[in-house]
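Students often ask why inverse folding is considered easier than folding. One informal answer: many sequences map to the same fold, so there is more than one right answer. In these notes we will look at a single instance of the problem. The structure comes first.
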C-alpha cells in the first residue's frame, strides 16, 4: 500500500503542476484574443472540458489516497465515527443508510474501489442494496459525470443478448431496420452495471469475457471492432463460486469480474440497523405521501423489529410505505399484509404498561426468533425497551431525571431511546383540564 500511496501522491503532485501550466496557457490565449470566431471558441471549450476531466481524475486519485490512508485509523472507530469519517472524506452515500459494521465495511471497500477502474462484483440476497451499491461506486468514481448504464442480464432473451449488449448493424437480422448502439457503447467512458450476472447464459459469458479481455466490441453484423472503455460492476444474488463448480458459470469470467468483491449481508444479520431504517423510511414515506410520519403501536414495532425480512431492505421499505399509506395517525398489526400478520392474541396489543404484558411481549418475540442467540437478543432488546418506557412514564418523560435515577449517562440514555424509537415527549404528563385544576 505504501508504494501505491507514493506513486499516486507523486504522480498527482507532478500532474497538478502540469495542469496549472495548461490553465495558464488557456488564460493567456483568452486574455490576448482580440476576437474569437466559432471554431476557436469550440477548440477552447474542448480544451477546458479536457482540463475539467483531468482535474476530476486527480481529485479522485487524491481521495483514493485519503481512503487508503484511513485504513489504520478505522480499527478503533465506532460505527458512528466511521460513517462521519466517510462523510468528511466527501463520500457520496446515494441514500445508503445504516451504520452496521458490515455495511460500513462494504462502503469502505466501495470507497477505495470507486476511483479505480477495477471490476467489482457485488453479491447479496435480493433486496440487500446491490444496485444501490453499484450507484455508490459510480457516484464516487472519476466517471461520475459519465453514463451509468444498467443491464439486467436475466431479463434479455438469449437471441437478443448480443444485440442488446453490443448493438447491431442495419439488416443484421430480421427486424434490424437501423444501426443500433448496444449497452456497452452507451456506457463508453462511464460504468456498465451487469445485474443478475449469474443468469447470463454460457454463450453470453464467452462474448462478455472476450470484451473484457480486448476492451473492444463488435456490433452484430459488423466487421469492424469498436473500442469501449466501460467500467464493469456486476451483481448477483447467486453463489457464483457454486455455479462455477456446477459448470453453469465460467470460472475465468468469475475471476475477471470479481477483482473487488463486495458482499452485502442480509437484513436479519444487521438487525441493529432496523430502528434507523424505520425512521428513515417513515420520514421518506411521509414526504412521498404528504402526511405526518406514521407512529407504530408497540405490538407492530415489536413485530417489525423481529420479523426475518426475507425480502430484506426492499421488503422493509415496502412495509413502511404500506402502513404509512393505510394507517391513520398510528399503525397496528392490522395494517400488515395478511400473509405475514401474526395470529391474533399472541401478544398483548396494549402498550406494555405492566410487567405481565412486557413479559408476554418478550416471550412472543423470542419465540419468533430463528436461533437461540436471536431469541436472547430479542428478549434483551424487549426488556430494555420495557424498562425505558416504564422509567419514562414514572418521570413524566424527563430524560435527565431518568438518567439520574438509573445512574446512567444522559447521552447514553438518549442513544438507547433513539435505538428503540422512543420519544420522551410522548411520556410527558398532559396538562390537566381547567375543571380538574379547580377541583384540586
Ligand atoms: N442501506 C440502505 N439504505 C437505504 N435504502 C436501501 C439500503 N439498501 C437498500 N435500500 C433500498 O432498498 C431497495 C432495494 O435495493 P436494491 O434494488 O439496491 O437491492 P438489490 O440487492 O439490487 O435487490 P435485487 O436482488 O432484488 O435486485 C431500494 O429501494 C434501495 O434504495
Ligand atoms: Mg437489483
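Output (designed amino acids):
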Amino acid at each position: 500500500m505504501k508504494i501505491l500511496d507514493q506513486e499516486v501522491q507523486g504522480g498527482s503532485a507532478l500532474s497538478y503542476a502540469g495542469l496549472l501550466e495548461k490553465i495558464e496557457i488557456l488564460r493567456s490565449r483568452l486574455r490576448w484574443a482580440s476576437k474569437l470566431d466559432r471554431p476557436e471558441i469550440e477548440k477552447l471549450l474542448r480544451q477546458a472540458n479536457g482540463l475539467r476531466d483531468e482535474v476530476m481524475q486527480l481529485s479522485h486519485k487524491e481521495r483514493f489516497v485519503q481512503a487508503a490512508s484511513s485504513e489504520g485509523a478505522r480499527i478503533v472507530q465506532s460505527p458512528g465515527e466511521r460513517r462521519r469519517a466517510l462523510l468528511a472524506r466527501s463520500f457520496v452515500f446515494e441514500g445508503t443508510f445504516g451504520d452496521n459494521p458490515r455495511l460500513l465495511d462494504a462502503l469502505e471497500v466501495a470507497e477505495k474501489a470507486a476511483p479505480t477502474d477495477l471490476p467489482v462484483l457485488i453479491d447479496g440476497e435480493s433486496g440487500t442494496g446491490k444496485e444501490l451499491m453499484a450507484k455508490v461506486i459510480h457516484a464516487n468514481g472519476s466517471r461520475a459525470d459519465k453514463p451509468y448504464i444498467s443491464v439486467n442480464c436475466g431479463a434479455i432473451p438469449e437471441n437478443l443478448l448480443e444485440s442488446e449488449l453490443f448493438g447491431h448493424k442495419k439488416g443484421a437480422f430480421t427486424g434490424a431496420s437501423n444501426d443500433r448502439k448496444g449497452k456497452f457503447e452507451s456506457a463508453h467512458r462511464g460504468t456498465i452495471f451487469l445485474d443478475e450476472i449469474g443468469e447470463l447464459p454460457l454463450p453470453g459469458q464467452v462474448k462478455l469475457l472476450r470484451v473484457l479481455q480486448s476492451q473492444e466490441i463488435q456490433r452484430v453484423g459488423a466487421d469492424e471492432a469498436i473500442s469501449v472503455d466501460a467500467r464493469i460492476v456486476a451483481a448477483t444474488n447467486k453463489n457464483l463460486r457454486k455455479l462455477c463448480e456446477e459448470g453453469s458459470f465460467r470460472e475465468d469470467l468469475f475471476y475477471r469480474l470479481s477483482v473487488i468483491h463486495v458482499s452485502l449481508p442480509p437484513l436479519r444479520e444487521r438487525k441493529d440497523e432496523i430502528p434507523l431504517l424505520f425512521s428513515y423510511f417513515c420520514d421518506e414515506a411521509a414526504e412521498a405521501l404528504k402526511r405526518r410520519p406514521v407512529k407504530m403501536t408497540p405490538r407492530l414495532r415489536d413485530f417489525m423489529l423481529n420479523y426475518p425480512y426475507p425480502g430484506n431492505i426492499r421488503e422493509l421499505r415496502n412495509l413502511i410505505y404500506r402502513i404509512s399509506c393505510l394507517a391513520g395517525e398510528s399503525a397496528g398489526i392490522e395494517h400488515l399484509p395478511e400473509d405475514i400478520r401474526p395470529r391474533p392474541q399472541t401478544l398483548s396489543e396494549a402498550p406494555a404498561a405492566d410487567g405481565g404484558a412486557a413479559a408476554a411481549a418478550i416471550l412472543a418475540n423470542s419465540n419468533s426468533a430463528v436461533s437461540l442467540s436471536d431469541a436472547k437478543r430479542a428478549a434483551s432488546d424487549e426488556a430494555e425497551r420495557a424498562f425505558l418506557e416504564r422509567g419514562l412514564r414514572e418521570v413524566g418523560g424527563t430524560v435527565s431525571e431518568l438518567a439520574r435515577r438509573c445512574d446512567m449517562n444522559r447521552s447514553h440514555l438518549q442513544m438507547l431511546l433513539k435505538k428503540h424509537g422512543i420519544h420522551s415527549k410522548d411520556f410527558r404528563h398532559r396538562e390537566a383540564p381547567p375543571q380538574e385544576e379547580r377541583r384540586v
